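User: My instructor asked us to take a sequence, write out its structure as tokens, and then describe one feature of it. I'm not sure where to start. Here is the sequence I was given:
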Amino acid sequence: MLKGIIFDMDGVLINSEPVHYRVWKKALETRGIDLDYETYKPCIGSTNRFLLNILHDNYGVDPEDEELAEEVQRLKKTMMEQEGFPVIPGVQDLLKRLKKFGYRMAIASSSPEEYIRQVVKSLRVETCFDYLMSGESVKNPKPDPDIFLETAKHLGLQPEECLVIEDSKNGCRAAEAAGMTCVAYYNPDSGMQDLSTAAMVIEGYEEIDGNFLDKVYCHDHHLPATVCETARLIIREIAEEELPCMVALSNQNSDPYVTEGEEKPLEEEIANFPNYRKYMYEMCDMGFWAIVEKKTGKMIGRIGIEPKMWNGRNSVVELGYLIDSDYRRQGYALEACRAVLEEAEKRGARHLYCRIHSANLPSVNLARKLGFEKIDYHLEEEGNDINVYRYICNQ
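Assistant: Let's start with the prediction itself. The structure tokens for your sequence are:
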């Protein structure tokens, strides 16, 4: 279960990498050195010590040059006083949303602790963080995992309970080495960073919330993510151990007018499930989901939206559902379908479709209550008794 969010700072909370490069370039000019950006870039996400070793290897700079370090700090302080900390758009609102979600949160930055505190104070987000960790407090800098592992300890969490938000190759590799799920924030000012080890790459914070990060975490750990909730129900991805229940649910159905189709044998469902989970849940963000009654924790049905190809040429997104016979006529189908329609609209769907046998009056009535309208469309592989209904999202 996801319990903690660990943020890098430079390039994630503030857009400071261009400032850092300008500071170091100006400081080195006094020593007759023209700092090339390609030489500087590998240090992004790591410590000043890491950069000094790079400067030693490329320009012969003394890693113990205290005057250079002091000059860098003086220039940085002056620049920040004149220009302020360049905050990433949406950061303050993101932090407040995640704090309300109940996560423990920390900063794990390669920058000095005093600088981290200055940034946090300047952004007025002190109350959002439970701990601030500097890379200068651990033995090995990123890409080693030391800073993230130590931060998790101070949060009172196990590494597998944490998610990291990073913007650099070094940071993503450090998160992976720590055994933590990583979400990479693509910041073009951080250079062309290799973010391929992250579970997800994002380009902004406006639509990121706890539900989104929970889903990324669950998919990274192959756990069933929650899709949405209602007063009585939780709709979430199906866990592998629930496949027998899903098959039994389908096999109990004797209604000849249900268009769900025949279920595959349990052994085949189990064998195919890892690929289904990866493609439908993790890549398409669709699929059939479990309908779970909150009061009992029992799976009482399944519902979902899936991409389909109709008549070999028309790509559609189809809604389907099935409720346990013991739970029908209690409003669960209407409640679950409404929640899924709202979720589909949030995800940007334009139209949803469903197939209903003309004699299946309960489903016809439900479709009309939900706002589906019958359209003139013939399914070539279906009988004449199968009608197509369409829902227009965000009307």
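For the description part of your assignment, you could build on this observation: The two ends are 37 Å apart (CA to CA). Try explaining in your own words what that tells you about the chain.
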